[in-house]
Amino acid sequence: MRFAQRFSHWFIYTAALAGLALFAFRPGNDPLSQLLAKLQRHAQHSPHEKVYLHTDRNTYLAGETIWLKSYLVYGETHAADSSSGAVLVDLVSPNGRRIVLDARLRSVQGYGQGHLALPDTLSAGRYTLRAYTGWMRNFSEDWYFSKPIDLLRTAPSNRPASSPAALTAQPDVQFLPEGGQLVTGLMGRLALKAVSASGVGIDVDGFVLNSKKDTVVGFRSEYLGMGSFPLMPEAGETYTAFARPLGTGPYAAYPLPTIVESGYTLQVDNLGNKDNIRVFVSHNMPGLTTATPESGSAAAPTGQLTVLAQVNGQPVVVARGPVNRRAFMIPIPRAKCPEGIVQITLLDPACKPVCERLVYSSHNDIINLAVKPTTATAGNRQRVDLAIMATDAEGKPVAANLSLAVTDANQQPKSQPYASSLVSYLLLTSDLTGHVEQPGYYFDPKNADRLTKLDLLMLTQGWRRFTWETVLADSLPPLPYSFEPGLTLSGTVFRGTGRTGAAGVPLMVMLNRRDSTKDMYSATTDEKGRFFIDDANLTDTTTVYVQATKTNGNRNFTITLDKLFTPQIRVVRPPFVPTDIAYADLAEFLKRQGDYAAIEAQIRRNREVQLQTVTVKASRVDPYATQRGIFSRADVSLKVDDINSAGALTVFDILRSRVAGVAVTGSGLTPTVQIRGAANFSGVIEPMFMIDGMPADKSAVANISPRDVAYIDVIKGAGAALLGSQGAGGGINVITKRGGPDGGSVSGPVPGVRVEKVMGYAPKREFYAPRYDAPTPEERYRPDYRATLHWAPMIQTDATGKATTSFYTSDAKTTLRIVVNGTTASGYPGFAETTMKVE
Length: 839
Known about the structure:
Domain TonB-dependent receptor plug: 638-730
Strand order of the largest sheet: 2-8-7-4-5
Protein name: TonB-dependent receptor plug domain-containing protein
GO biological process, one term: siderophore transmembrane transport
Number of strands: 48
Oligomer: single chain
Domain Macroglobulin: 50-140
Radius of gyration: 35 Å
CATH class of the domain at 625-746: Mainly Beta
Largest sheet: 5 strands, mixed
Shape: globular
Distance between the termini: 47 Å
GO cellular component, one term: cell outer membrane
CATH topology of the domain at 625-746: Ferric Hydroxamate Uptake Protein, Chain A, domain 1
C-alpha cells in the first residue's frame, strides 16, 4: 500500500487480553471521541511542512559559493508540497545572534534551487544554515531545517582551537523513565543518555545504589552513550546512580528521577514480534482493583484505558483495555503503521494523557538509489559519465527528482560516519528535537543491529511537535502567517503624514528587475489601508514603485512597504567537536585554495595592466524617475520651460505642433489628441492620459497649470503595450514639478509615491565547470583544483528509473565523493553515496 494512501483515513483497532471483551470503537460524545475530534481539529488547524537542503559540501573557504537544492514536503505524507512557493534560507553567525546571509528560493512543485555567495570577509567558524517557509513561522524554530556549515580560512590563526578541558570533563548523564515516570512497585525501564562536555554521546558504565548502599542494578551504554536497564522501585526507598566514561576514571553520582507512589507505566516491545508492536500497560491507582461481584467484593470499577498511536500527527491505531486489570498487553499491528516515528500515548479513563513513548515503524518505504561511474578510475581532465538508477523496494523503476554533488574528498574534512541525508531527515530527525548523531546509521541495511539502536534513540530523544495542552484546549490560537504560493508584496497607505490607514485608494505597482524586465499590477487598499500583491514576481534586486492617487487627483498619501519577512534569531547550534575537522588533513586543500586565490588575483592584475584608458561613465540620476513610473524611457520627452510654455493656457497648447507624430486639434479644455497610427474604422483613438505615472482623466490634465509641469512624456509603439487595452492609442504622462523654491524639482519623498529596492528570489545561476573537450585558452592553461567538481540540482529519472549526467575531473590525483539525494512526488525519499579514483 502506497504511503500517501495509508493516511486516507484513520485506522481504528481494538485489542484486549484473552478473556476480555472485544468491541468496536464508534464515534460519539464520550471522552475518547472528543479527544479524537480535538486531535483532528488540531491537525486541520496546524498542518506542518518539512524542508530539507542538499548542499554540495559542508565545509567552505570564505569567498566560495554554497550550492543549494531545496526539498519541500507535506509533513503528514512527505509528498511534494505545492502549497508554499518560497523557501527562506538563512546563514546564521557562529554565535547564533546574527543572520549574515539570506536568500529566497523559488519552490516549484516542492523543488527549488539557488546559491549563497560567501563574502571573502567572513571569519572562520561553525555557521548554521537553516531553511523554512512562511507557514512554518507559525511554529517553533525547533522545526526549521538546520545544518552546520564550517567556514575555513587559509590563515592558521583563524582556525578554532580545541579545549583539552572540555574533552576531559565529567559527562552529563540523564536517566529517562520509559513512558515518563517510575512508579513504586511497578517494573519499569530507565533509559540513559550520556553526553560529553563537547555535546556528543560518550559511552559509560555504572550501577545504582539504594538508600542502604546496596547495589540494585548495573548498567552500561550500548551506542553513542545510549542504553537502558530495568528497575522496580520499592516503597520508601531512594536511589542514586553512579557512572563514569567506559572503564576509565572515577564514578560520579547522578540522582534518578522522582518516583511516584501511584500511577501508570507504559513499556513497549518493538523488536520481539514481527507482526505487532506490543504495548504493556501497568498501574497501581487506588480504587482500581481487580475485584469482581462473583468474589463477594465490591463491584469492579468500570472504564477503559486507551492506547493511541499516531504517525506524523495522524492517528493510525486506537486500542482500549479494561481499567480493572492492573496489567495487560495491547498489540499494535505493524501493517497499520506507515514508515516513521510512532507516538504511543496512554490515556486514563477520562482520556487524559498519562504516559507516552516513541517507537519507529520500519517498512522500507524508501527508494533505492544507485549511482555508478561508467569507469572505475579516471585520469586528469577526463570526462566521467554517471548512470543513476531509482527503484522501489520491489526493484521496480520509479520517477524521482534528484540532486547530485561530486566533490574532491581530499579537499574536505573526513566525512563523519552516517551523516544526515534526505532519508534520515524526513523519516527521523525532522520529528525529533535536539542533535541526533550519525542518523544515517539507522537506515543502512548493512547494520544488522540498526533497529535495536534506533529503539534506544526513541527512548532517549524528546518529542515536541505539539503539546497535549494545546490539543485539548477549547480553542486554538489564530495563526498569523498563511500558506504563501510565492512572495507576497504588501504595505500600508496612510492619509497624509498621519497614521490613519486610507481605505479604497487605487494603486499602481510596478516591479523593475535588474534584467530590465518589468511587471505592472493594480491594487486597492482595504478598510485598514492595507494592500497585498500575492505571488509577486520578485527576482534578485527588484525596484518596487508604488503610486497612489484618488480619482479627484489627491495624492496626499504616505506609503510604506512591509519587509518580506523578519526572521527571528534563536538558533540551537549543533555541538562543535574540535577533532571533527582535521586541519592537518586539510593542509593540501588550504594550500591549493590559497594558490588558486593567488592565481585569480594575478589574472585580475594582468587584466588591469592591459587596460590602457578607462573611461568611467555613470547615468545621471533622474529626479523624476518615480513620477515616470514604468516608463523610465519615454519615446519622446518634452522639457517644459518658459519659452515653449509662453502663452500656453493648457498642457495641450504646449504639445501642439511641438512633438512629431502628436496631433492636437480643437481648442479649449477638451481638444482632440491623437498619436500617429492610433486610429481604426471607428475613428480616432485618444491616448491614455496620466499625471506622474497614474491614470487620469483628460479634464484633470487640462486643468494643470503649464507653470507646474516639468516634462511631458509621450509613449507609443511597443512601450504602450504596458498600458494594456487602455494604451491602444499610446500614452501621455504629464510630470509635475515638485515644489522647489525656484519652481524646479526638490529632493525628498514624493507624496503618494514609494520607491524601494526589495530582495526577491535568488537569481538563477548555472554551476560553472570547465569542459575539457573544447577548453577555452584560459581553461587550457589554468590549474584546476576545484573542491566541487559537479553540481546537478535538478535530475529527473525517466520511466525506466534511469538518468545520466557527466562532468570533467580536475588536475588532482584524488578520490571523488559522489552523493545523490532525491524523492518521488508521492513521498518516498532516497539517498546514495559512492566514490571513485582519479589517477
